[in-house]
Specification:
The protein has helices spanning 3-18, 40-46, 60-65, 135-138, and strands spanning 25-30, 35-38, 69-71, 88-92, 101-113, 116-127. It is an alpha+beta fold. It has a single domain, classed as Beta-Lactamase (2-Layer Sandwich). Strands 2-1-6-5-4-3 form a 6-stranded antiparallel sheet. The longest helix is centred in the N-terminal third of the chain and has 16 residues, at 3-18. The protein is globular.
Length: 140
C-alpha cells in the first residue's frame, strides 16, 4: 500500500472509533444530481447556510468537488449509483502538510417517487482533527 493510502487507512480506523456519536448529514438528489434537500449537518458539510435556499440546479458532485477531493476516484465514476467497488470518501486538507478531514459518502436509499428518481445520501464525518471544508468559512 502506498504512503497516502496507508495514512488514510490508519486515520480511518482511528476516526471510526471517534465518530460514532456525530450527527449525519442527509441529502436528497434527483436523477440530474441536483440537490433537492439537505439537512442542517449536510448543509454545514457542503458550505450552505442553514436558512439559505439551495440554489436551483445545484449539483451535488460539482459542489463537493469544489471543496473536497473525491477518494478513491474510481469509486466516484458511476455517481450517484451505489459503488460496489469501494466506499466513497471526501477528503479536505486545508494545506498539503496538514491533517485532513474525512467524510464517508453513502447512497443509503434509491426511490422512485411519481416517476422521479431520488437518491438519499448520507454524509458521515469519519475524522476531523482540525476542521472541515466549511469551518474556515463559518467560524469568525
Amino acid at each position: 500500500m502506498d504512503k497516502p493510502a496507508t495514512l488514510l487507512a490508519a486515520q480511518l480506523t482511528d476516526g471510526l472509533r471517534k465518530a460514532k456519536n456525530l450527527p449525519s448529514g442527509h441529502v436528497l438528489i434527483n436523477a440530474a444530481d441536483e440537490i433537492i434537500y439537505a439537512n442542517k449537518q449536510a448543509r454545514h458539510f457542503l458550505g450552505l447556510l442553514a436558512e439559505e435556499t439551495i440554489p436551483t440546479g445545484q449539483k451535488f458532485l460539482s459542489l463537493v468537488q469544489s471543496a473536497y477531493q473525491c477518494y478513491p476516484a474510481f469509486a466516484w465514476l458511476d455517481w450517484p449509483k451505489r459503488s460496489l467497488s469501494a466506499p466513497r470518501y471526501l477528503i479536505f486538507s486545508p494545506t498539503r502538510n496538514a491533517s485532513f478531514s474525512l467524510l464517508k459518502v453513502e447512497i443509503v436509499e434509491y426511490l422512485v417517487i411519481d416517476g422521479s428518481e431520488i437518491w438519499a445520501v448520507a454524509l458521515d464525518l469519519v475524522e476531523s482533527p482540525l476542521e472541515t471544508a466549511v469551518t474556515r468559512f463559518t467560524h469568525c
